[in-house]
Amino acid sequence: MGLTGIQIFKLLPKTNCGECDVPTCLAFAMNLASGKAELDSCPYVSDEAKEQLAEASAPPIRPVAIGAGERAFMAGGETVMFRHEKTFYNPTGLAALVPSDMDSEVLDKKLKEWNALQYERVGLNLRPELVALKDVNGDGSAFAAHAKKIAEGSEFGLILMSDNIDTMQAGVDACSFKKPLLYAATDDNAEDMGTLAKESDLPLAVKADSTDGLIALSDKLTGMGLKDLVLDSGSRDIKQIFEDQVVIRRAPLKAGNRSLGFPTITFPCDMASNLDMETVIASMLIAKYAGIVVMSDFRGDSLFPLLLQRLNIFTDPQRPMTVTEGIYEIGSPDENSPVLITTNFSLTYFIVSGEIEGSRVPSWLLIMDTEGLSVMTAWAAGKFSGDVAGIFVKKCGIADKIAHKKIIIPGYAASISGDLEEELPDWEIIIGPRDASLIPKSLKELA
Ligand code: SF4
Q1: Nearest residue to 67 via CA among 291, 277, 355
Q2: How many angstroms separate the alpha carbon of residue 329 from the centre of ligand 1?
Q3: Distance, CA 54 to ligand 1 centroid (Å)?
């Protein structure tokens, strides 16, 4: 249970020196209790107080690192129930299931196919992170061989799934360097699994039949010194799993229940008879509030929408996505190619650059930093005015790359043309179309 602001205040020096950027220790205590301040901001806290305060300043839902290398990711670490309250931080990990009796050649093929499922979107590489290897026959050597193959032959992180401690040990021996998640400690094996996870310094999933059962197991394992847990409430029923996810998210955030303050793992692969229905369930669980979803397979038509949904949910609603300011070459432009200018809102960039590409007219695209605002919003906020845009055009160096002085501005920013002419007196300002879909026609006419 986290400490209240008053409880924290009692542990602070009470000198009100203000070095923590708030005027009083009480204000700092309140900020610490609500997660708005870091304990390190006060240089005068005693070591004993630090120990007690560590609990209060720790994130209510522990961030748990899974995997190593390219696709390592963090689950948990969330601080709010709803994205609009602040933001969600750590995107739900996506895993595909591999039974341990899968033929080795089939596994090779699957890994190759799954590895190819990567998508470039708004400058980001969208891809799944995990393979969940499930022990289906107690064959430890087959389990270890597949774990080794996945760990060494792919970028995927691993979830090792077995109730049998010897099989799990074989899997850990084969791939511990990849920091797999061990699934799962239950009432029957908690001590053995807990010991293995602790000795191997690996995260451990905990499975129970209810949230009450999870609390008991989580307390037992944290009592053994384990810190990185992932929770499975055991339900494979859509309504119940939804309720469980909400309960597990609310408990640490709203009631200070640290026993449930861990990310969750869910199994759409066990909840539907086909991948389409699994995808629908996974979509619900990405929104509310799974740390990991395990699918029976990755297929482009199912995975891509999930990756996009995840991207949308886990971007900061207060910070628009942006692209870097600069000169972008579309096609292979030369000194006679047209020059267009727009804002650095990533969606604007991708729509405009896509239309230019579609026109097959090689062009220079100037992207100006407007703090991620779209054309009309940036114009209304004074961040895409004629004088500011003019200064950017002069500074960016486009004049050295072209033999003409013509620039196309967005139709929605036509009103900046006068000021832009004043700033760029020897340039011809051409007003482009309002609708990006008309850019190809406009470029072809100009050409
Ligand atoms: Fe109090 Fe520490 Fe902040 Fe000073 S820096 S006001 S002692 S909490």
Answers
A1: 291
A2: 52
A3: 16
Asked if residue 55 has pLDDT above 70, the reply is: no
Nearest-CA residue for ligand 1 atom 8 is 25
Q: Is 37 in the pocket of ligand 1 (CB under 6 A)?
A: no
Q: Give per-residue pLDDT as tens, 380-426.
A: 999 999 999 999 999 999 999 999 999 999 999 999 999 999 999 99
Q: Which residue has the tokens 């393979």?
A: 131
CA count, 13 A, side-chain hemisphere, 49? 16
Q: Whose CA is nearest to atom 2 of ligand 1?
A: 42
Characterise 25 by phi-psi region: left (phi > 0), alpha (psi -120 to 50), beta (else): alpha
ω into 412 cis (within 30 of 0): no
Residue carrying structure tokens 């929408």: 305
Alpha carbons 167 and 280: distance in angstroms, whole number? 33
pLDDT at position 1, please? 47
- Distance, in Å, from the CA atom of 366 to the CA atom of 325, rounded to the nearest integer, reads 8
Nearest to 57 by CA among 32, 84, 20: 32
- Determine the Cα angle at 138 with ends 135 and 141, to 5°: 85
Q: Residue 25: CB within 6 Å of ligand 1?
A: yes
**Which whole number is the average pLDDT over 222-241?**
97
Place 57 in a pLDDT band, splitting at 50, 70 and 90.
low
In tens, the pLDDT along 180-191 reads 999 999 999 999
